[in-house]
Amino acid sequence: MRNFFLFFLLLGVSSCSKHFVATQYSFQEENIKPGSAVDTRLSTIIKPYKDSLDKEMNIVLAISDTILTKSVPESDLGNLMCDLVLKKSKDYSEQKVDFTFLNNGGIRLPNLPKGNITLGKVIELMPFENLIDIMQVNGKTLDTLFNYMASKGGWQVSGARYKIKDGKSMDVQIQGIPLNLNATYTIAVSDYLAQGGDNCNMLSYLPKSILSKSLRDAIIDGLKEMNLKGEHIKSIIDGRVQMVK
Fold first, then answer.
1. H runs (alpha helix) in the chain
2. What is d(CA 136, CA 139) in angstroms, rounded to the nearest whole number?
3. Average pLDDT over residues 185-203
4. CA neighbor of 118 nearest in space, from 63, 75, 53
């Protein structure tokens, strides 16, 4: 009987508890304007973290003898990035990778400066966490891919060469050999493009081996290796992508 009484007592108490629901809210926007007073207390709190981050971002990865610029159909900046990604993809995967490519939208800076190339600048260049995918692709699919790249004005490549005429690709070569529609090739590409990003739908259905390394990792590691060898970055335009009439 006592437990029965306690049950109804608790039921009554719980039914009497109030539940509050917000019916309106308000806020006041406070914009930081040029010349605004510095919050010294907040600056003091942030300073150790800012100093640590600035120190890391200012680490010099390599030295460039010239300004490297993004352009189409071929650019020295795009060539450098693709060359580094191709080289490091082979190292990471321990496979024979035939070529790599990079969409122009994936290059997020118009240029890299002459002189010191810092970690912070490379992060600005490649701010995304796109991992490298290794894929087996047949020649017919690659023919479609190169035609698509040509229709976009030319994308950056390494391990391959092609010409563009009237918005279509021609004279495609992989590792110096004409593209064979019946052959299978190994490519390294960002997971974004491998999944069909930027309308690369011809790749989306293919099996993928995803590496634990990103495109940015490949560029950073490649630049560090150059620096350790005492090599400087030099502008390389070798006609790997050409517009023809």
1. 2-16, 40-57, 76-93, 119-125, 139-151, 191-194, 201-204, 215-228
2. 10
3. 97
4. 63
- pTM here is 0.82
Instruction: Report CA Rg, the chain.
Output: 27
Q: List Cα–Cα distances, 187 to 25, 79, 153, 158, 174, in angstroms.
A: 54, 16, 21, 10, 10
- Please state, rounded to an integer, the average pLDDT across all residues of the chain: 90
CA–CA gap between residue 72 and residue 156 (Å, rounded)? 8
Sorting pLDDT into bands at 50, 70 and 90, what band is 188?
Answer: very high
Look at residue 189 and give its three-state secondary structure: strand
Chain segment 77-119, per-residue pLDDT in tens: 999 999 999 999 999 999 999 999 999 999 999 999 999 999 9
Q: Which residues contact 209 (CB under 8 A, 6 or more apart)?
A: 93, 133, 134, 135
Domains of the chain: 55-243 (3.90.780.10)
Q: Which of 161, 194, 190, 165 lies closest to 178, judged by CA?
A: 161
Pairing of the two strands 131-138 and 209-214: antiparallel
- Cα–Cα separations (whole angstroms), residue 220 to 9, 15, 75, 198, 208: 68, 63, 19, 24, 23
